[in-house]
């Protein structure tokens, strides 16, 4: 009997373990569609990993990195002792698949620098200037990590003393400087609405975007005290924290510094704000009151009836919507990634979309299966008709549908070069329209389809200095391939060009005066008129985001206006704009300056001004190709150690501790994990080693482990203790330590179908053995005498083999404590051989329907065992009484239900097969303002009404009623158990989610059986 019960305990563990040991039960997948064959270049300060077909494209980027190194080194006074790794991807779709960085890479992530190996990981973008900016930004982070790691009295953990605005803001300031129309727009807006944060608010409140606000504050610090204070202030903050560092380095306290900065912003921008219009032209169609706070990329249909736009008005995601262009009424949601699981994401940063000439279809750019694709939507049905490739162009953006409906032109990226490509919808062929080293973006068709106007960083005559990389207006004649540059506002960014309706004039957006306003270019005489004069600007999320559209068939303009921290969409007849002539060579960036204007030792600005006129300090011949080496290095090490002593009764001691180590190669394709631990005596030594291969569609790993599991049981009896005077009766308090040893070799793998679907598979061989030590603790009349230890017989060991496969899907969107939209499903099959001949089947489906402000959640789960050993008594049965399944039916309920006369037995709670069904109404209660009922910056919680139901049964009886209740055998009545109640889930600082609940079993005398309980973990 003893042997049987012990085996059952262990069998229950081993049949649960594979589910826990495999990859996450649910969760999205990181794309792994492509296997990258990296090559390596060495320069004096960098180790550059790339897979460009032409190595010279990579050499150019290395030289740019060396130029940034020299600039940053002059300010930060730090020198790399070894070459710093840079891993460069050809485009953002490839970058999203990187294995060098764990976790998902979002569309809005331009690059990442991680601190363990100091790797800079980033893609090439559609604009050379943007690629250069991201490179400069990330290399500031590389310096920051290096400074903390190698500094006096600092280490890598010192980075925790640095507020995020200091880290990200410094990277922006040193890669852009103090003149930035985009950040200045944010600052002017803050002055208008009187919302300039204190430094304490900037540090603690996430609503103040650290990139923009940090750049502005660093600009003030550098301009007021000198850029030579940057390095000492940064290092001192790492040592002591910001407040003490400011007093030590700058000689003022943090509060005074914040007040000085606020006064500087107000005094500088108020005169410029006073020169602008206070009322926007046109009708405010989509805004926070009827849509979202971020309504961007508006595209009006050719007949002027509808607007397609991107918005986060559903709070949980950024989706594509359709609205009436006259009233602003939101008509429908055209597309989202929940409805179309094969779409990984929308390209919302650099792309809007384009209408077909008849207004029946809408095309937009998505990420799907490791590349950009065109999704074409039937507008009337809000149904994606097809998702098509553009042959030869893996990455592209800014689609524009031709007037005859036959083609779509895109700005494409191939081998690091940005050009225009024409995709024929009928022949499915691609034609390259431009081919050079310049960046060409935002194409737009003329009414007759003969020309394309676009923005390009091709320089106009005489354009030089820091204006290199700025965008000018260009026009391509398709018949001849001739490109004409318009010499307008040279040195400014002139973007989003469109032909005015019924005219050859060009409407465009420009930051030529430090703002971002709408202008009209007369092609015939090259004269320009300013159409808007806004204090903030017509803008999308970034400077390169589309923000304006016109209706071909009528003179209506729609645009996205940034104001009071929100993006709203306006519509106006073209004739309603107040046109004011401006010289075509008038460029003045004073309104784009981040104050102060008069700067002390402006080293950063001086270097940036000369950047494009200065050659790299490293010559091309100093860049050498070297063989690729994996270079396994330690990524992470953690551990603990201690001594445990038991002083109650017999004194025993033991060692406790362990160490975990993670190694990976330089690009993250391979990981090696090792762990050893000791928790008590030498018999409690455990170890595990694992290898994971992360590249390609099939990711796989193997592990080898020896794991001890310690359990105990206690009992007592009367014994006779032999002494010199004979036998003495004593009380024996018996403690049995039961050690179960699992020795296992396992193989696991994933086949990634998309970011939302995968196939899991694997198997293993496990051997279980036991050791039982019995401690006889002798007492007489309550006084301790001594302890004898003996090793007693243990059950025989056994071995079994296991195979499993699972199909998993998860496109759900998580709220504060649980999913609120989308669905999850898992179909899991396991087969055990050897000691146990069992099939283990699991089907789990969950659906979340968002009905603002709440969500309805449904779950149906079936878990079953089949086979000759499924009900042989050696395996602990499955149960439905876990609060994660059904709430209110714990052990206390069972005892009390018997007292109430309910005919509930263990056979109603346990079985070899279970079914669970749940329904919840989830209401986000406290937290972010637009999601919850009560705004809170620290308490994140949901309120939930639930109904839980479950049924457990067996083909044969698992329990004899007399074994538990003293009753005679009787017919078992299998019936579902149902409860209802209320719960609250509380997210404690992102570390743990706690769910207290009150459950009412829907049984006889249910209210008397109502009980409280607590779940730990996120909602299902």
Explained architecture:
By secondary structure, this protein is an alpha+beta fold. It is 17% helix and 42% strand. The strands form 9 sheets. It has a 19-stranded mixed sheet that branches. A 6-stranded mixed sheet has the order 4-5-3-2-1-33. Strands 6, 28, 29, 30 and 31 form a 5-stranded antiparallel sheet that branches. Strand 38 (698-723) and strand 39 (726-752) form a beta hairpin. Helix 4 (128-150) packs across helix 5 and helix 5 (164-176) crosses helix 8. The two termini are 38 Å apart.
Oligomer: single chain
Helix content: 10-25%
What fraction of residues sit in β-strands? 35-45%
Task: Quickly give the structural class.
Answer: alpha+beta
Low-confidence segments:
1-23, 645-651, 958-970
The radius of gyration computed from the alpha-carbon positions, rounded to a whole number of angstroms, is 34 Å
